[in-house]
């Protein structure tokens, strides 16, 4: 039995942001309709190495596709010349359970996370949103901004920078992809004066204060993806319509996990899951004055629906390498 092997260059040649957004939106819709089997991601914590390993399985019932992603987060990897996040995705036959494809999941993770932010902004941001504020300028910030550029007309991007050289690199890379003005700010407060705020930091103490965020802002909170992480002032959550990607997963590893554990908010303060909005079960933004927050933890359904798209394109185009498994 042969398995299709797709390395990162193969995956990059087969996946663009517009396709990722369309796939992820479909995945969220199926999740909202309760047509997926998706246990919350499981974690192994390597405390002496400052890292963790996560497994993320899912079965999409209508599409009849299944698979699992194995992904790490090691913040110190840059010192070793490695990405902070690395991943492998396995697609499995639902008829036999046999592996169909094994592919790089690092690029998929970056793209599907950005795509989720794009889908969230499509349903939750004001239609006249043109100014983006960014807290964090790493790889996740790049795909977040790229996805936003596919769902709205971006005129200005404000960057919060402690290290100006990082912001310079970000502007250089993204200005080739998006035609807009880039403004570099010395503090986070200044970038919060925006239409859409994107936070992509690994912090464990809030860096965005409630009083800095004006009414009508939409926030994509991306950085909190494990127990103990939080980027936003809990008082901001209480002022806002909070939408999570998955209630169970967000409760133990999303932006809401710390304030929930401390009793600062309750599950009643969480409006719904994004998939329920995409599926039309609940309305998204209902007024220009609302502050909306999308709490993104990253779902296996995003990975597998995107990986299946890549797999189908690879078969059509004859890309990848067949490897004998048995």
Structure in words:
The mean pLDDT is 95. The chain has two domains: 2-108 and 301-324, ornithine cyclodeaminase, domain 1, CATH 3.30.1780; 124-299, 3-Layer(aba) Sandwich (Rossmann fold), CATH 3.40.50.720. It has 326 residues and is an alpha/beta fold. The strands form two sheets. Strands 1, 2, 3, 4, 5, 6, 7 and 16 form an eight-stranded mixed sheet that branches. It has helices at 8-14, 17-32, 106-124, 139-151, 164-175, 188-191, 234-239, 247-253, 257-261, 274-278, 300-317, and strands at 2-6, 36-37, 42-46, 51-60, 65-73, 85-92, 99-104, 131-135, 156-160, 181-185, 196-199, 218-221, 241-244, 270-273, 292-295, 321-324. Helix 2 packs across helix 3 (106-124) and helix 2 (17-32) crosses helix 11 (300-317). The protein contains eleven helices and 16 strands. Strand 4 and strand 5 form a beta hairpin.
Rg measurement, Å: 19 Å
User: Judging by the overall fold, what is the CATH architecture of the largest domain?
Assistant: 3-Layer(aba) Sandwich
The third-level CATH topology of the largest domain is Rossmann fold
Question: Residue share in helices?
Answer: 25-40%
Using brief descriptors, characterize the structure shown:
326 residues, alpha/beta, ornithine cyclodeaminase, domain 1, Rossmann fold, 2 domains, 8-stranded mixed beta sheet, 8-stranded parallel beta sheet, 11 helices, 16 strands, 26% strand, globular
